[in-house]
Amino acid sequence: MGTEKKLYQQASDPIIIPLDWRDKSARIISNLFSPPLFALACIVITGLATRSESSLFWIPVFISLLIIPPTVYLLLLVHKGRVSDFHLSIREERAYPLLMILAYAAVIYILMYAVGAPRLMLIVTAAALIQLLLIFLITLKWKISGHCTSAAGLALLSIALYGENTIPLAIIVPVVAWSRIRLGRHTISQTLAGSFLGAASIITILYFTNTL
Fold it and tell me: Most CB contacts within 10 A, which of 37, 168, 171, 179?
């Protein structure tokens, strides 16, 4: 469906509307700034913020264990037809994959804690687990934007770790929100809720761990 956009109605056949440059831009933004890539960016900036030579070891370890396996898992689900798309656009298809990823990530977090991973990287990973848990619980009744949760989390994390010079990075939040709304994947309220969840979870865990 590379050249057309489908808008589904309950009582009639799909309406086919040709994609314009805004739709194509929204799709590129949505794919480029997806939750796994935001998570990867969070690992990198957190690892570098530890200002330790060991970060060159821990960054690829965290990426290999926390980013690649869940990404491959989702791609396999798409390939097998278990879910409609990589971004889990249909709410009813989200719960099981999110629960599996959450359980897996929790096990990896415990493993990383046991082997002495950097404290800051563990704190940020804990924030990601909290985000994922809340998204899973909300998803049972409502469709919150995981894209916006990840975008806001990265923006707030960057500001917290590197200061006001990274404030312009916050522009990614409304840009990602626009792309999800433009594609019909979320409403304004769903993107706002996701953005709030991402920012609030990062601020809260950094505050209570005396990291701010």
Answer: 179
pLDDT tens per residue, range 87-142? 999 999 999 999 999 999 999 999 999 999 999 999 999 999 999 999 999 999 99
Domains of the chain, by residue range, sit at 21-208
Residue 2 in this model has a pLDDT that exceeds 90 = no
CA angle 101-26-125, nearest 5°? 30
Q: Which of 66, 200, 203 is nearest to 144 (CA)?
A: 200
Are 135 and 144 contacting, i.e. CB atoms less than 8 angstroms apart? Answer: yes
137-166 burial code (b ≥16 CB/10 A, e <16): ebbeeebbbbbbbbbbbbbbbbbbbeeeeb
The angle subtended at Cα 148 by Cα 38 and Cα 125, nearest 5°, is 45
Those residues with Cβ within 8 angstroms of residue 165's Cβ, 6 or more apart along the chain or in another chain: none
Which single residue is written with the structure tokens 């601020």? Answer: 203
